[in-house]
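Protein modeling request. Please complete all fields; requests missing the sequence field cannot be processed.
Requester role: graduate student
Desired output: 3D structure, token encoding
Chains: 1
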Amino acid sequence: MIRQAALALLLLVSAAPALAECRQALALGLDVSGSVDAREYRLQMGGVAQALDSSEVREKLMAMPSAPVHLMVFEWSGPGDQAIVVPWTAIDSETTLNAVIANLRQTERRDASPGTALGVAMSEGERYLRQQAACWKRTLDISGDGKSNLGPRPRDVKERIAQSGITINALVIGVDNPSSGDIRQSEIGELSSYFDAEVIVGPDAFVQTAIGFADYARAMKEKLIRELDGLVFSQL
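Delivered output (236 residues):
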């Protein structure tokens, strides 16, 4: 009986790649609102590239080439100001991943409105992820360094997305002025609580924190590892 159950499980998992085009659709939404200056923009964009280029993340992305992760990156700020940086791309080879990393490192900042329309960004991410309905899991990552001040309330958008099966995780960026001292910890704690209550949704959704944009690459790497960990078991 145990042998038969093990065989059935093996056949089910072995067939999984044939049942879906990808194991995970991952959309990264980057905050480029007015509070993000040119230096911080470069640290954020370069931080995503550095995280994707790390050996640990590379290993997890390449773990199942027959059912790759589909990745996209977009920028957001005001209600009518979102832009795709990396369109949906199946990360099915080192060459493809290298091209995505190079694209991110070469991306120049565009003019963006100063507002912070977090609810709109969540809705846009949901719209993009609906294009990847065949994937086993769909995850939206929202990076932000402040609370929403324009557009629909994130809480209202979150309640709607909760019915879609999409998971939203957040990467909260705190202030990085060393002169602020312990204030940094209290400020990032407050912002993390806001994203926890208003933004994240779905099974095992979480908030990752970065102490300033200089810490962004480290935080993004840890977040990607955590997100990708849950689906590598399908190799077994």
